[in-house]
Design a protein that fits this description.
92 residues, 60% helix, elongated, mainly alpha, 0% strand, 434 Repressor (Amino-terminal Domain), 5 helices
């Protein structure tokens, strides 16, 4: 039996490096938005209102359901609640 070694769980889950990079970026944005909600003490309903989404959608974010969010949707949510998204390239 052969064991593969991966740099991250996203590398293990994804079929391509591009897909892994997308998963990593989405996860980072989701963590940042969840941290903002916790730091501000917002309820799910308040966070949903501020991020311009429904409460069930906010619940999906806070439960880490990454497959339900695109990068565009997460950037839009961040912008709606007054956050600026910064993307930085780094060598792999």
């Amino acid at each position: 039996m052969t064991h593969a070694t991966f740099h991250s769980v996203f590398d293990a889950l994804a079929d391509t490096a591009e897909e892994a990079a997308n998963l990593k970026a989405r996860a980072e944005l989701m963590r940042a938005l969840a941290a903002l909600v916790a730091r501000e003490g917002w309820t799910q309903a308040e966070a949903a209102r501020r991020c311009a989404v429904t409460q069930p959608r906010m619940n999906d974010l806070l439960r880490g359901r990454i497959s339900r969010f695109s990068l565009d949707a997460l950037v839009n949510m961040a912008a709606a609640c007054g956050q600026q998204v910064h993307i930085q390239l780094q060598p792999a």
